[in-house]
Amino acid sequence: MANCPNFHGLTKFNTSAKRYTCDICRTRISSYSEAYGCRSCDYDLCKKCYNEKNSKSKSGDSGKLQSLFAKQYADKEDPDIMSEAGMMKFFKDCGVNPESYETLVIAFHIKSTEMGIYDKNEFCKGFAESGCKDVKDIKKVIQDRVRAVQNNLPEYKRFYKWVFHHVKEDEKKKSIPTELAIQLWSLVLAKQKASMKLLDDWIAFCDANKSKDMQAISKDVWEQIFDFLLQTNSIDSYDDAGGAWPVAVDEFVEWMQEKKK
Amino acid sequence: MQMKANNSNSSVLDANKSRRKKKMNKKMVIKQFKVQPKLSSTFESDTVDKLMSAVTDIYAKRSAECSFEELYRSCHSLCTLNKGKLIYDKLYARCDAHLQQMIASVSISVADPRRMDHSQVNLLPQLQSIWNNHRREMDAIRQVFLMLDRTYVRQETNVKSLWQMGIVLLKQHVLQRAQNAFIAENMLANLLRLIESERNGEEIDRELVKTMVMMIAHLGIYKSTFEKALVAASNAYYQSEGHKLIETLTVPDYLQHVMKRLEDEHARCVHYLDHKTQRHLSIAIEQQMMYTHAQRILDKGLVSMCDELLIADLRHLYALLKSVHKITPLKHAFYEYCKQRGLEIVNAGLHEAGGQEEQKQQQQQQQQQAKHDKEMIPKLLAFKKNLDTIISQSFQGHSDFRKIIRNSWENFINQRQNKPAELMAKFVDHQLQTGARGTSEQELEDTLARVMDIFRFVNGKDVFQAFYKKDLAKRLLLNTSASEDAEKSMINRIRKECGQSYASNLENMFKDIDISQDLNEKFRAHWKTTHGDKHVDDDHNVNGDGDSGGGDIEFNIHVLTSGCWPTYNTQPIVLPSSIQSRMSEFSKFYVRVNNGRKLNWTAPLSHCIMAANFPKGRKELVLSAFQACVLMLFNRCNKYKFIELYQATKIDKSELRKTMLSLVKANILLKKNKGMECADDEEFKLNAKYENRLRRVKVNQIQIVETKQELIKTSNKIYLDRQYQIDACVVRVMKARKELVHQQLMAECLKQLRFDAEPKQIKKRIEALIENDYLERDANNNTLYHYKA
Fold first, then answer.
1. Do B782 and A227 touch (CB under 8 A)?
2. Among candidates A221, A227, A242 on the partner chain, residue whose Cβ is nearest the Cβ of B742
3. Residue from B639, B691, B628 nearest B662 by CA
4. Which of the residues A217, A247, A250, A258 would you substitute to probe the B interface, choosing the one with the greatest number of B C-beta atoms within 10 Å?
5. Which of B174, B202, B303, B603 holds its CA 20 to 30 A away from the CA of B251?
6. pLDDT single digits (tens) B272-301
7. DSSP state of A119
8. Is the ipTM of this structure higher than 0.90?
9. How are the residues of chain A apportioned to helix, strand and coil, as percentages rounded to the nearest 5?
């Protein structure tokens, strides 16, 4: 399957009068004709390239993957999920550091619904869609994906948002426990530490308040804190954005100012 | 005429004679015409001379040589002879000469430089006499020359009547002659000086001024010159006076002075000025003394006048400011006054609490604060009463001022958030508890009405309700209410002010009490039929062994609808079995009567009367349930440790601690260690030497700490209630706008909410709404919200 660099999938659309350029052959796609693109990545392909790429790219093989899963990674007691040892092996096979957030990227890629568990069906479906037949393919796809997440900030944010959705216990829950959120932050945002100078302070703040009035982190706080940490380099250059930051952020700023004194 | 008539008569006689002769002689005789009587050639000049000499006589104030009648006739004859013009001209010249002479005499005396300084005023009497003479003379002349006026003057168009002529001549001499210019100037200046000295309080010759003003009026320069000058002078005078007095006088004195000035000017106009001038003078005073100083007067005097309740002076102020259309500054000043004084009362004793201050000092401050708070409501009531008096009696009950009161009160009373509402509820509670003591029913009603008057301005009506409910519950359950009528009327007032739903909870509480009484009756009858055979003893005999079931005890129960009453702690405690048996019986009884209902027992609110046999005598103790439970234990043993008591009663530790301390304080129990602390292993002993001269003793509970907790609890409840209001408000705004920037949303909510919501509260609610998918943040702009329908 042809895909955009960030694996969003390509959708068919008719070009308007605007100028579209094919990202493979670098030619202009004529107006009002068929094309395939991903709007969030601004990635477009002309019909010819799309078809070429589609025919060239190996189509995934769900059956092979299933047997691979069953043979190598499956839990003996529940063959539908990956065992602990299987996971370690899988991470090693894919060249992924089990201590890093890259494991979450895998889950992100196969759109896993439950944290810490790789379901067989999701595994097979997810990798088959990205054209995988064996471990080698999987490794390549995962490495691509990790790179995409790491080097592309919007993609990184999309991943970050997905994490919240992913770790929620069930659909109805609106928030995650602060304890868990702290762990996730130190895991997921570790690579961003250079651009998020206040990350450690924020985590310290959450840690201090997790047993008091901040027992859970809502989706809004989860998403807003990402922007906040990116925007704010020090507490002195804090931009209150017209007071629109969540209360937790306000309290954090107060806490920091207090601490400074 | 007479002469002529004689002539004609004689001719008729002659004719008759001749006719007879004709008959006799038949001879016609032709006679010559009789010659017309000829006037003597000197008649004209003689008469004129006679008349002129008469004029001279008049001028010289001598009695005339001939009688007025003769003179009149002479004038008449001359007029018939068409000599009018001659006489008129002569008369004109004569008058002219005379006036010139007269004026000249004045001029000399005034022009004398040596007398210049103090003779200025002398000019006026001279002029006055000239004018008076002139009037008298012209009057006389006019009478003599009446025929002239009637014939000659009437026939000619360009000729003025004699009186007019006199005036014109006078005017010419006084005003238009260059060498007499100083008269005109000085006359005005002197007049004005006279008026000014009268204004300064000196006695002046009003008659003189009056005559002069009359003369001026006749000369036709009153309006054009004199009035103008007078108004200008008045303006200047009052301007300087205004500037001077506003500094030196107090505002009430100043206002009184202005009023007096107005009256004076009015009197002046009645006495010697034209009544039309009054308006100009009043305006001068008002403009110079009020209009220009309005702001200063208000700044300087309004506050003290209102404080001291100077009704009359305020009325002056209002009337004066109204006449110069300066009511608006008064309104502003009054608004500021209300607000400032109100804030002072509301914020009385509020201190900035510093972190490093000693705790003792803080405690002192707190106590002081509490004292101030206690006084706040009575002070506010008094303040409101004063303001009402001022408006109704001084400001003519103007509706704008009532509006101002409302605005300013709403402004300041809500400055300290919920405190005033809370204190108001407390105040009402206090009134209703002690109401009957010392105050008549009418007074109580009056006070309540006034409280409601203020209550109207409070935004935190929910705060009031919460506290009022709590206090009402206490009054109802502990039966401390002073009068049921007062309670009912208060509820009515609340309903009138806040609507049915607001008051219905409170009404339900009354209903509960009524129903409970009924229920108690029924239950008592029920108990008698089931346990009736047991001995009946009127004494509440529960001593002896506490668990032995006791004798017959009076058992009263209030069944409270949950939701209508404040929430209480329903944690079960260990009660004596006699009570427990009744409780379980009642539960059965109640559930049988009202199917499907559930009863929760709230022990902390109950109270009882217990008989106790102390070694020194028998006492009745009025106790709370907790106290009673503890004391019952002492029937078995004289000494307990705190922890043992806790295990035996299962009363919450902090509650138990308070209960123990209250009993120690009442001297019923003895504590091993002195002081207010109470550790787990503290020992308590029954006081065998307990004495009290009363038979019935009420053991007070320790309240202070409790109220503080209750306060927090009530506030929390209010916050919860408000949460929904905030939610509703946010959703309402967002539903209308679909998308809105954070700040605008906040501003809109703060505007719409009737209470003072903290921005943080609203923000929290916005976040909660985002979480619940009512709103969402814009993907790119995190300060923009979208409404998700």
1. yes
2. A242
3. B628
4. A247
5. B202
6. 787 788 888 888 888 888 888 878 777 877
7. B
8. no
9. 55, 10, 35
